[in-house]
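Reopening this one. Same input as before:
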Amino acid sequence: MANEPLLVLDHVTVRAGERALVEDVCLTLPRGQLVALIGPNGAGKTTLIRAILGQAKYEGRITIHGRVGYVPQHLQYDRTLPMTVLEFMALSLQRMPVALGVTRATQKRVLELLELVGAQKLARARLGGLSGGELQRVMLAGAMQDRPELLLLDEPAAGVDIEGEATFHDLIARQVRDHGVTVVLVSHDLSVVNEITDHVVCLNRRLMCEGNARDLLTAETIAHVFGGHKAVYGHAHTGHDHHHGHNHP
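Same output, byte for byte:
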């Protein structure tokens, strides 16, 4: 149903032995929002993403009403492989081995996906020769192949120049605006979070707070979430209107 929440986390805990990496997180996300997941290093952000993807064992309940796409922080592959972007994307789109050729239907679908991110010209490019920004686009295109309602991005702009990062964030915002996708973006850059996101979820092992980005990203909240951690980049909004946010003890 269109009005039901897309993602519900009900008392989700992820443990490594006796230690809780993520503890007792309750969260409900509606459809069609760009959500930032922020917190210091070691706060459990990637762990929570892995739990949502079913890649980490967890306690509690996670309910997703829709298909999920995922863009990892890094793509691990042999850069010396003589594989084109078309062949790489075809690996997950056709049953016939790519070594025997790429079907006409697969080529059409790959070009459609690349067009979504403005990267049609990369289809014949060698995968190992792509820049960081180009590889981002290819990974985003691949994540869109099943027309996901929920798109998870784990710091996808890491190691990319500022101009490329801005372009990529524009592409993400377009998926929300034009296709109604809900995006959860793990990010350290609070200036980007403040500029492009609708909603912020602050995690430091536990859910610290959540709410409207411009209301939550105050010096007070940042100190509350990040404590003495220095791994915060950019310039946060410094307004003091808290009435839309929710602080969690």
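So the earlier flakiness isn't reproducible anymore. For the record, The first helix runs from residue 45 to 52.
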